From TrEMBL:
Protein name in UniProt: non-specific serine/threonine protein kinase
Organism whose genome encodes this protein: Phytophthora sojae (strain P6497) (Soybean stem and root rot agent)
PANTHER family reported in the protein's UniProt record: RIBOSOMAL PROTEIN S6 KINASE
Biased composition (Low complexity): 509-536
Region (Disordered): 475-536
Reactions performed catalytically: L-seryl-[protein] + ATP = O-phospho-L-seryl-[protein] + ADP + H(+); L-threonyl-[protein] + ATP = O-phospho-L-threonyl-[protein] + ADP + H(+)
Length: 870
């Protein structure tokens, strides 16, 4: 089956006397599908609905017109839709004609977008840009490790750098790679593109503008991170052209920084200080308000950042970008000192002149700024006194940057790099990434200044900062080695790049490799089957009875299998929504864990299958609903809380034995059977193959249940689950959360204060329960109860009298069970969901356009068991 193509779509609509287009959204096109299916896919993406073709009003889809965003030419054939290109969906022909006239027939119309970009920025829409060739058109791709390679030969692009004859080709490839990264920013990370200056004057060429990128929450988020690349000739999305080619996405692009920022709840603005003029024909025009990096910085601050609601602004600046930040501080001293909470420079290129700098600015830098710099003489984490005097801020070494390379760059390529004025200084950003965000989070959540952060960090271990930087360096070396070995390991040069690039995104954690490892642990004799309807199991084998849950990527149904009449819960996920939200690895992880686990207190997978557009997970139905549904303001009784806690201990113990860190324990993820027993469910955030107390590092989970080491961005292990159990038990016994506060910063401060739970423990709390909770909520994970195994909890006085073996055999009668009328009763689920109509809400045919399958997703226990016995 042909590969699906990812495109970007904007919905056109009439506003006043003009036709305007909204924000770009991602959609998927299958060249072999009908045109109406493609139009409906575009409409579903723009409206974020689930209506199928036959559900649309008669004539609606037939009347729609699709235009190519760059040319405004009409498109009416699915095969004409190109990967990574941008299109406009007009709801009727008149709107399409008016839109074309606005661009080509009306000299007063300066752009397709219609209104001024100041209005567009307020609405959060993006400019129409589709002028660069894509990587696919140039026959190149980013492989799984982030290395730029040729599709047919699989040759790495850095190997072309020694060939002077291909210098022009190399520039085109780099431009396409930057465009590719910027499309990733728009599609994966929900960035929007704004063009500055915002107000275009009649006497200015319409192209005399530069682009900056903002996350969709830039205006409303209380914490805004401003990223400034001062590298010469750099564009938004990359730190260094040469580093992007030589070392790939992980070191050369901004994507790791952006993912970490969004994961830690920062809005992001990526500036563009190096684009100061444009060439149109033979003439060069300066960009008003942006004719120099310093002018660009001041313009964006005055016209965009200052209008945001962010109480706290943070700066991450590289090289000469730090100089532009210094100019901003000096020119807007009062505003900056009031709003900027923390600054991190990487290889900051400025010198502070005490004779011309106000004492306030100098003191502000000492209190709020940290500069990271490569230094061959000073070990990682050590202070660099000469730089601290020059910059008037703390300056820490990331070690010898030349040692961070793998030494395998061919001599000819190395000389080519030097000819292009390459430097490996941009590596400093990646090496200091962990420390940078640990500081930003500490500044945001605890008001921590630079000097205090460094002092506290160094006090935790002998050289904590150095260890973090060295660990970051070590974590990058295997990635580089894998890139060098990719061809030798037998990569098929003729393989379609689309198959390889589906997993190209680097993540904040190593979930992708963990999924692969666990998949390998499944019996190797089982046949891998990626067909859409394996062994006849499909949605048509089930009667859909009720909607019992709904989320951003799909729904959960109560279903009954037609041949056995057994009732199940069926989770239905749209692949396009999974991809749009970047949840591919989460879904694969959940699927793998559910298949491998057979435990009385953990949800059991019965079937999984897929169509070309949807994923289906069928599990046992727990008619008692979520435990959260039954929690009252007074909590549960002591006996019931102990019973539930004991079952959770057994469930978590089993997961940990399988090297799984659960990472999302909370009442909403615990289901209650009709009998009163519990089932742990929802493994999308779980971490596979955790083999130590430092086997994970991603900040994931529900904020009020996260352990301190997760907020600290430290590596962590199973102890995070025992912390969450402590919070959970407190909540069951009291009906309240020990740390919760509507103000997130206050809540995090409580979590990050060692021993704080002891001060809030109710006087009436039974001593055994208080002792267990305090043990589970111990700040230091190595001292936390359970850190040496679940037996520590089993032996605690709180569980005295619990017969663990009988409980495991489900021979202990639950102290309470929910009210359930019959096996089809949905009274314990939210009426908001159960009242939804079921008819036609699940697609039983293949009309959608996303064709990619999730490898090894299909699961039929009878088939799997027989394959294992062979």
């Amino acid at each position: 089956m042909a590969d699906s193509r990812r495109v970007f779509v904007q919905l056109a609509g009439v506003r006043g006397s003009r036709v305007e287009v909204g924000a770009a959204v991602m959609a998927f096109v299958l060249p072999t599908d009908s045109w109406l299916s493609v139009v409906n896919e575009f409409l579903m993406s723009c409206n974020d609905d689930d209506m199928e073709v036959e559900q649309r009003p008669p004539g609606l889809l037939e009347g729609c017109v699709v235009l190519h965003a760059a040319t405004l030419e009409q498109v009416s054939d699915p095969a004409s839709c190109e990967d990574s290109k941008q299109y406009i969906l007009c709801m009727n022909a008149d709107d399409a004609v008016r839109l074309q006239r606005q661009k080509f027939g009306d000299s007063s119309a300066s752009s397709v977008t219609g209104p001024s970009d100041a209005d567009a920025l307020a609405r959060g829409s993006i400019a129409l840009t589709d002028q660069l060739e894509s990587l696919e058109e140039l026959d190149y791709y980013f492989d799984d490790a982030g290395t730029l390679r040729h599709c047919r030969t699989n040759q790495a692009v850095y190997e072309l750098m020694s060939d002077e004859r291909r210098a022009g080709e190399l520039d085109d490839i780099v431009k396409a790679a930057i465009f590719h990264i910027q499309m990733e920013m728009l599609a994966e990370l929900a960035f929007k593109q704004a063009r500055v200056p915002l107000d275009l004057r009649p006497d200015e060429p319409k192209d005399a503008r530069s682009s900056i990128f903002l996350t969709s929450d830039w205006r409303s988020n209380a914490n805004l991170l401003v990223v400034v690349n001062g590298g010469r000739g750099a564009q938004p999305g990359i730190w260094s052209r040469d580093l992007l080619i030589q070392e790939g996405l992980e070191l050369g692009s901004m994507l790791p920084v952006m993912r970490r920022a969004t994961a830690t709840n920062f809005a992001v603005a990526v500036l563009n200080p190096s684009t100061n003029n444009v060439t149109i024909g033979n003439d060069t025009f300066p960009i008003r308000g942006n004719s120099s990096p310093d002018e660009h910085m001041l313009y964006v601050w005055d016209n965009i950042i200052s209008r945001a609601q962010a109480r706290n602004v943070y700066f991450l600046a590289y090289s000469f970008g730090a100089k532009s930040v210094l100019t901003l501080i000096q020119k807007r001293e009062e505003q900056v000192v009031k709003r900027v909470n923390a600054l991190v420079f990487a290889e900051g290129a400025y010198r502070l002149d005490p004779s011309t700098t106000s004492p306030t600015v100098a003191q502000f830098l000492k209190q709020r700024a940290i500069n990271f710099k490569g230094d061959a003489q000073i070990s990682a984490g050590g202070h660099i006194p000469a730089e601290e005097e020059k910059l008037s801020c703390s300056c820490l070494s990331v070690g010898d940057l030349t040692a961070s390379g793998d030494g395998k760059m061919p001599p000819a390529s190395a000389s080519a790099l030097s000819k292009r004025n390459s430097s490996n200084k941009a590596r400093t950003i990646s090496l200091s990434l962990e420390t940078t965000f640990t500081y930003f989070v500490a500044a945001r959540d605890r008001g921590c200044g630079a000097a205090q952060f460094i002092t506290e960090s160094e006090a935790k271990t002998r050289s904590w900062l150095g260890n973090v930087i060295r660990h970051r360096l070590d974590s990058l070396k295997p990635r580089k080695q894998s890139r060098r070995l990719s061809t030798a390991m037998g990569a098929n040069a003729s393989e379609s790049p689309h198959h390889r690039k589906t997993a190209r995104r680097s993540s904040l954690d190593t979930d992708a490799s963990s999924s692969s490892a666990m998949r390998a642990s499944i019996a190797s004799s089982r046949s891998s089957n990626s067909s859409h309807h394996s062994h006849g199991v499909s949605v048509s084998d089930f009667d859909l009875i009720k909607v019992i849950g709904k989320g951003s990527i799909g729904k959960v149904f109560l279903v009954r299998k037609k041949d056995t009449h057994v009732v199940y819960a069926m989770k239905v996920l749209r692949k396009k929504n999974v991809v749009r939200h970047g949840l591919e690895e989460h879904i694969k992880t959940e699927r793998l864990i559910l298949e491998e686990i057979d435990h009385p207190f953990i949800a059991r997978l019965r079937y999984s299958f897929q169509t070309k557009d949807k994923l289906y997970l069928v599990t046992d139905y727990c008619s008692g609903g979520e435990l959260f549904h039954h929690m009252s303001d007074d909590g549960f009784s002591y006996d019931l809380s102990r019973f539930y806690a004991a079952e959770l201990v057994l469930g978590l113990e089993h997961l940990h034995r399988l090297k799984v860190a659960y990472r999302d324990l909370k009442p909403e993820n615990i289901l209650v059977e009709a009998s009163g027993h519990l089932r742990i469910t929802d493994f999308g955030l779980s971490k596979l193959n955790v083999v130590s107390d430092k086997g994970a590092q991603t900040l994931v989970g529900s904020p009020e249940y996260l352990a301190p080491e997760v907020y600290n961005m430290q590596k962590y292990g199973y102890a995070v689950d025992w912390w969450s159990l402590g919070v959970f038990l407190y909540e069951m016994l009291t009906g309240t959360h020990p740390f919760f506060d509507d103000n997130r910063e206050i809540m995090v401060k409580k979590i990050m204060t060692p021993g704080s739970v002891g001060t809030m423990m109710p006087a009436e709390m039974p001593p055994e329960a208080a002792s267990l909770i305090c043990g589970l909520l111990t700040f230091n994970p190595t001292e936390r109860l359970g850190s040496r195994g679940a037996q520590e909890l089993r032996d605690h006085p709180f569980f005295a009298g619990v017969s663990w073996d009988a409980l495991m055999r489900r021979e202990v009668t639950p102290p309470w069970h929910p009210v359930v009328q019959d096996e089809l009763d949905v009274g314990n689920f939210d009426a908001e969901f159960t009242s939804e109509p079921v008819v036609d809400s699940v697609c039983t045919h293949q009309s959608m356009v996303l064709s990619s399958t999730f490898a090894d997703f299909t699961f039929n226990p009878s088939i799997s068991d027989s394959m294992r016995k062979r």
